[in-house]
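Hey, quick one: can you model this chain's 3D structure?
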Amino acid sequence: MTAPDAAGLRRRTQELLAAHPPATTGRTAFLRARFDAGLAWVHYPAGLGGLGAPRSLQPVVDAELAAAGAPDNDPRRIGIGLGMAAPTLLGFGTDEQKQRFLRPLWTGEEVWCQLFSEPGAGSDLAALGTRAVRDGEDWVVDGQKVWTSSAHLARWAILIARTDPDVPKHRGISYFICDMTDPGVEVRPLRQITGEAEFNEVFLTGVRIPDTRRLGPVGEGWKVAQTTLMNERVSIGGARVPREGGMIGPVARTWRERPGLRTHDLHQRLLTLWVEAEVARLTGTRLRQQLVAGQPGPEGSGMKLAFARLNQEISGLEVELLGQEGLLYGDWTMRRPELVDFTGRDAGYRYLRSKGNSIEGGTSEVLLNIVAERVLGLPAEPRTDKDVAWKDLAR
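Sure thing. Here's the predicted structure for all 395 residues.
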């Protein structure tokens, strides 16, 4: 089948709208029909939510659907599934896994989380100690994961675990799909500085995962995880936003609407940060255009670095601009939210929550190393554990 062009995609979208009018079609039913029509991810293969069309043509479909008032799949709520699990499934999943998981993932009927980081393996993720031991047709998993967004909502998780402790740490890891409703999976909330528990810690005790839910070969989970991590950084730092979208928007609105708060120093800082935010937005647009040619590379690490630094500096400026009002905090109620909403909350929340931006999705220090070595070509840092079996590493 020949991949459709822009005109062909518009025609297909209009046919979808005619057959399933948004005004009279339930949200889930419409999203399922959109997926089946190949208009979910147009660049995915036919039968998997796409049509094999260029990625650059997705906005053609999105614009037509938005103009018709069609529902979206609430991408912020299911960002881990869309931005991390889906491309990993596409790259390494079996045909059966793709058919089983991609459709409910995209429609939001099944939420995903990520079981990667551990108390002793965050920045040095390859040092992870969660074990998966083969038992017939299953793997038995024991260990602890931490900083798991949406674990309290998720049906499925992407999980990396150690399957061979006798080889160096990067080579003894395998990648699995874990059912969060299985016996032995315990999710505990982690209350954050914001008062909420958007993150969790997850304890795995004798969790049985069928070998049919393994992604990639045994022992090559680190390679699979690199696809996940590169897509994660793009989804965090390279998200599509309009001008004055994101954190810079509330500050700019306050500046325009409340001239009594202005000072010369704050004006100069706001101008600088506004320009930097716009540069980051345009760079994100360019990065998404580069993705048309293939998988994300280390450039996404640079975008995620900029995202974290800008959010922290902008939120700090906003608190200063508001003066005493900026010290207020709206609500310390312990909640377990479904998504992170920076722009819909108050300045105090934005200031506190942005502190985590330089940790989540890869610490800024680790990303600086990635940019230095893989983008700039600088010498790699010395490693003393490269050829040491994981079981022999000092802990």
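One thing worth noting: The radius of gyration is 22 Å.
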